[in-house]
């Protein structure tokens, strides 16, 4: 019977249920990962093997098969290391068979058994919360995952620490979100529109654009203050609501650009160079990372030297 560990795949900011199905059977020793894995996922078997060896555990000399289902969804990223390792430990009867039935697991393994940070912890946590499940993620991702709210987040720093928790030897405490006021108005210092002296017409145009959410075309010679005006536009936009903050944070979580506390508290301001490539602007690439347009969601996208794009 196959062991099943719940994990996720990302398609943009959408999250897809993935099952890491692990089976150990008799036959020539082999370690195969199937289910449309990319290069990072295919290499996870070596990271898993080394991490288990660092704890004094060896994989059995049998046929090990890992199926990441559904098989028609491409699996990208190193966050499958931890669910694969835990699935093997359950199949090897090191862990209880039902210890992960209600948990979503993500995390990359280092060769010494440390659990390394991965992108996408916040979308994964929101997905797990919707499934009424807990989340197991790296310690470095816990600060962003807890913003999903109403979910138990366990964030161990090593595989050994997680094993002890799952065996009931040394339990981890779920992370808690300490926030008294849901209004996200503590954005810290930012360029202020009050810094602009003169430019009454341009400031009035920015106020209209901010109030109505309009696009704005600024024309003028170099040094006229176009960039300075654009940098101060976020300061007159309304504060983020909790829902808007989560929307923005999910996008920045996938790109690995969240602040230390795990939540975007200010509207983003993005000013890509005019030589930026098309994937850098609209997103894409091998892992479909968010582009500058997505990263500016609910904020300001300033395209300086616009004819150069």
Q: How would you describe what is shown here?
A:
- The chain has 309 residues and is of the alpha/beta class.
- The protein has 2 domains: 3-166, Ribosomal Protein S5, domain 2, CATH 3.30.230; 193-308, P-loop containing nucleotide triphosphate hydrolases (Rossmann fold, 3-Layer(aba) Sandwich), CATH 3.40.50.
- The chain is built from 11 helices and 11 strands.
- It has helices spanning 39-42, 44-54, 81-91, 121-130, 142-145, 159-166, 200-212, 226-232, 242-255, 278-282, 292-295, and strands at residues 3-11, 14-25, 30-34, 63-69, 103-105, 108-109, 115-116, 134-136, 153-154, 269-270, 300-301.
- The chain has a 4-stranded mixed beta sheet with strand order 1-2-4-3.
- Helix 2 crosses helix 3.
- It is elongated, with a radius of gyration of 23 Å.
- The termini are far apart.
- The model has no long low-confidence stretch (mean pLDDT 92).
Q: How would you sum up this structure in a few lines?
A:
It contains 11 helices and 11 strands. The protein has 309 residues and is an alpha/beta fold.
In total, the number of strands is 11
Any idea what the shape is? elongated
Order of helices and strands: EEEHHEHEEEHEHEHHHHEHHE
Question: What is the CATH class designation of the largest domain?
Answer: Alpha Beta
| Main sheet characteristics | 4 strands, mixed
How many DSSP helices?
A: 11
Q: Uncertain spans, ≥5 residues at pLDDT below 50?
A: none
